[in-house]
Design brief:
mainly alpha
């Protein structure tokens, strides 16, 4: 039915070019009705009408097909990406399970329950079609997970299930105002095309002397109006259907974009979490390998100076008299000298105590 609209576009455009040209030129030159010049001008106008109608109709229909094909290709690309993201989502969970399993063996039943639990936790971020597709893939005897581990799953299989679940669960929200506008515009254009083209054609026939006028044949006028009305309603229906499909595809693309965004975010978060856990595990294992095991009952062969500040010897508070010890020692408490100050001890005595303390350590 879309070809009727394209044909109407071509006919309306050609009628607006050819018939006014005949009327204006014949009137400006004062051509007699039925004369040779009028017939020649009429033939030229008919040729101009066909010359404009055919390419305009072809281009209009071609543009419609190209736009429709482009939209369908965009939708198909989005479905391919969603299928790849779903596959990546399952693959990340399998990799996470493998990373945590030291025996590198996977319990498919446990893995299936793990995926179902993760889907339940993220159900607010998944569309109903995604949830149904994932649950459908997990049904049966875990054949999907088994094939996934063997890398035998194709995105095309996931794409088929996703499309089926999406269109089954989708709820349409038609834009009635847009539909009404499209229908009115289509009806007006189609009615004007038929009525205008018919009026121009009748004027051409009158100018050629073939037709006497609508006064002699009034039923022709009524027939033209009836045909214009019928064609107008048909084109209005075609325009409303095209607008509905356009809105449906736009809504589908919007849903797909939101789904892709949610899946990408979930996969990015899970991948980052796995990398962080892998890096932490790698650093821990390397540290366990490179760090020497401390020996039991290890005997200290020298003083551990890191423990010395813990002893009270290094935390004695100094009094005012203790600040004058250094000059008094320098004056009379060095080895070989005698001191009469009972509060000060000779250097040898203090040195011996320090050596005994180190030996004790």
């Amino acid at each position: 039915m879309q070809i009727l609209k394209s044909l109407g576009d071509g006919v309306g455009t050609a009628a607006g070019v050819a018939w006014p040209t005949f009327g204006i030129v014949s009137g400006a030159l004062g051509l007699t009705v039925g004369g040779t010049a009028a017939v020649v001008l009429g033939a030229v106008s008919i040729g101009l009408f066909l010359l404009v109608t055919i390419p305009i109709s072809y281009w209009a229909h071609k543009n419609h097909l190209e736009q429709n094909l482009k939209t369908l290709q965009t939708i198909d690309d989005a479905e391919e990406k969603i299928s790849a993201l779903i596959l990546n989502y399952f693959s990340l969970i399998v990799r996470e399970n493998l990373a945590k399993n030291k025996q590198h063996e996977i319990d498919l039943r446990f893995l299936s329950e793990m995926i179902r639990s993760d889907i339940k936790d993220n159900h607010k971020r998944f569309s109903p079609a995604i949830i149904k597709t994932m649950h459908f893939l997990l049904e049966g005897e875990n054949i999907f997970l088994s094939e996934l581990i063997k890398s035998k799953i194709q995105k095309h299989e996931i794409k088929i299930h996703f499309k089926k679940n999406y269109y089954a669960s989708r709820v349409m929200h038609p834009n009635y105002l847009a539909l009404i506008k499209s229908g009115v515009m289509g009806f007006s254009a189609a009615f004007g095309t038929i009525a205008g083209c018919s009026a121009g054609t009748l004027g051409l026939l009158v100018g050629l002397g073939v037709f006497a006028g609508l006064t002699s044949f009034p039923f022709i006028g009524w027939s033209v109006l009836a045909a214009a009305l019928i064609f107008g309603f048909v084109i209005a229906k075609v325009c409303m259907e095209a607008e509905h499909q356009k809105n449906s595809k736009a809504e589908t693309l919007s849903d797909y974009s939101a789904t892709i965004h949610d899946l990408e975010n979930i996969n990015i978060i899970r991948n980052a979490k796995m990398e962080a856990e892998s890096n932490a595990r790698f650093k821990y294992e390397n540290r366990a390998i490179t760090t020497p095991t401390p020996k039991k009952n290890r005997r200290r062969s020298s003083c551990d100076f890191s423990l010395i500040p813990n002893y009270a010897l290094w935390h004695k508070t100094k009094t005012k008299t203790e600040h004058s010890v250094v000059p008094e020692i320098a004056a009379g408490d060095c080895p070989g000298s005698t001191s009469v100050n009972p509060r000060l001890r000779p250097c040898e005595e203090r040195s011996n105590e320090a050596i005994q303390f180190l030996i004790f350590l």
